[in-house]
Amino acid sequence: MPNPKETISLSNYLLSEIEAAINDNSYESEWYLDTEEEETIFLCDPAITGMYEENERLQQKIEEDEVGRFILIPSRPSREAWRQMERFIHSLDDVDDNTRDLLLNTIQGKGAFRRFKDAMYDIGMQDRWFEFKNREDRKEALHWLRSEELITDKQVEKGMQLYEERLHQKQRREMEIANMNQGKLVKCRNNSGHTQQLTVGKKYEVLDEQKEHLNIRIKDDRGKICWLPKSHFKLVNF
Known about the structure:
This protein is an alpha+beta fold. It is 47% helix and 16% strand. Helix 1 packs across helix 7 (126-147) and helix 7 (126-147) packs antiparallel against helix 8 (153-178).
């Protein structure tokens, strides 16, 4: 593996953009990495977006690039996307043979991606699938950057560490939201859209919850009992 000629800084945001580019196999769009600004550029048929001048300006910059500033991000072939689903199915060591065979059948023939997605929700494995897919997407994005000599092997490890840290934060937040139930104390972390009802930093008692809609019932700053999204709060002493 050649040594990188130069490196770019890594962030979950930039890597997520590259992952989105890899997953976009639309014929009407192209993604580029701007190595100078360390950001992605999305080009789409202006007949769809209506952004003719912006599209022309970006295309001209890319065509006039003589130093390799703009690098086309390759999209994942549909065959490899299919193999990704297959790898996930074979990674399930806690399902019986019938379930595994059923899942393998869903990815055969036309409409495989839709059937597989529906199957994931039907058997309640959508979270496991997205975690598996997101981790593989992160690896693919990092390996592409490495192949372009833009990051080092050490940065590949850092990129995976960033992913695991973000996943841990997401899982912790989901657990926190799940535990916002009757009798618990919550603190307002964001009062956007509810400035008359909530004060950032103020504590409220949970009177009831709507698990399906992720809402809690509290007495707001006006003294009224109302339902509000759990996303506006964090658990006290969690």
